[in-house]
Design goal:
Number of strands: 14
Shape: globular
Order of helices and strands: HEEEEHEHHEEEEHHHEEEEEH
Cofactor: Mn(2+); Mg(2+)
Protein name: Nudix hydrolase domain-containing protein
Oligomer: single chain
Strand order of the largest sheet: 4-1-8-7-10
Strand content: 15-25%
Structural class: alpha+beta
Number of domains: 1
GO molecular function, one term: metal ion binding
Helix content: 25-40%
Number of helices: 8
Distance between the termini: 45 Å
CATH topology: Nucleoside Triphosphate Pyrophosphohydrolase
Keywords: Hydrolase, Magnesium, Manganese, Metal-binding
């Protein structure tokens, strides 16, 4: 007879709080990091900078409190700390001043290593650079919150943020050059890997180029990254022709921010836990995005009911769960129309 005890489903893993930054460059390109092949999470994938929160980021509500998943100062501080550790890009201000904190590349590289090795906290290191320095948390724009599905052995509750790097001062109508002016160093920090600890490469590319690379299997993008890049590309890369003015770059950013604050709920407050909906005619999984996950069941949190992600998960080596291939974003209505044809 079957063992009923062993056949019972295990309780889903408790999702670990984490945060990521979708960093927009002065050229309206997006920063992605190429994770090492041996990474315990998303090996070999291209991801937004981010990671798990730590005690230095601040406290969160208890595990069973739905507010644990809400945007909060600890998520924001953790996002900027992880961005610094993983890419070397520092987003901090000189206290109440609107001036961004400018730190030499040598000092930044030393600081990120010391923070990663827990020799010093992010806050302590910032204060050593400027007594009133604070992470620029106010400039982060929430852009969806993702909770890993319950069938995954490792689960995360991840707050995504947009951050727009400022434009350097421009002469005439020429597009961003390489010459800096005083007070604009913060706009052109160059991302670097972390020496191969977690990241092998860090670079900015247009959102549309990252999507092209994923479709041609030159890069691995998991559903959250693919969806958000898909949405961003409709605004920042809506015209394939080269952008001729900073005014146009600013206009596209404004339209993107307006979109992020639109919808019901707005994209700033969408909570998404991808859920298997059906199989498409070509054998790919169709993931619904309207479920906020079991931790938020009974709350007023909602995901997106209009779009779905279509993906084929391909197992590679010893990796559990498989890597996403043939990823696309389509309307939910089109998926069901396909069934009727």
């Amino acid at each position: 007879m079957p063992n009923n005890t062993s056949s019972k489903s295990k309780k889903p893993a408790i999702p670990r709080p984490s945060a990521s930054v979708i960093l927009v460059s002065p050229r309206n390109e997006i920063l992605l990091l190429h994770r090492v092949q041996t990474s315990s999470s998303f090996p070999s994938a291209h991801v937004f900078p981010g990671g798990n929160l730590s005690s230095q980021d601040g406290d969160l509500p208890s595990i069973d409190d739905p507010k644990r998943h809400d945007d909060a100062p600890c998520y924001r501080r953790g996002a900027l700390r992880e961005l610094f550790e993983e890419s070397g890009i520092l987003l901090a201000k000189e206290g109440s001043s609107s001036r961004m904190l400018a730190v030499s590349e040598t000092a930044r590289q030393h600081g990120r290593r010391a923070i990663h090795q827990q020799e010093v906290t992010f806050e302590q290191w910032l204060k050593s650079q400027h007594a009133a320095a604070e992470p620029d948390t106010e400039s982060l724009i929430p852009f969806t919150h993702w909770i890993t599905p319950i069938n995954s052995p490792k689960r995360y509750t991840t707050q995504m943020y947009l951050y727009m790097l400022p434009f350097p001062q421009e002469l005439d109508r020429q597009l961003l050059g390489d010459v800096l002016v005083e007070g604009q160093q913060e706009a052109v920090q160059t991302p670097t890997d972390d020496g191969g600890i977690e990241v092998t490469e860090a670079r900015f590319l247009p959102a549309s180029e990252w999507l092209r690379m994923a479709r041609s299997e030159e890069a691995i993008l998991f559903p959250p990254q693919f969806l958000l890049l898909h949405l961003i590309s409709q605004f920042l890369d809506r015209d394939p022709r080269p952008v001729e003015s900073v005014e146009e770059l600013k206009k596209r950013r404004t339209e993107l921010v307006e979109f992020v604050h639109s919808g019901n709920p707005p994209w700033t407050h969408k909570f998404i836990s991808p859920k298997m909906l059906k199989m498409s005619q070509d054998g790919r999984s169709v993931l619904a995005l309207d479920d906020p996950g079991p931790e938020l069941k009974g709350s007023d949190k909602k995901g997106d009911a209009d779009l779905v992600i279509v993906v084929r998960f391909q197992r590679e080596g010893m990796q559990k769960g498989g890597s996403p291939r043939e990823v696309d974003v389509v309307s939910r209505s089109d998926v069901f129309r396909e069934t009727k044809i």
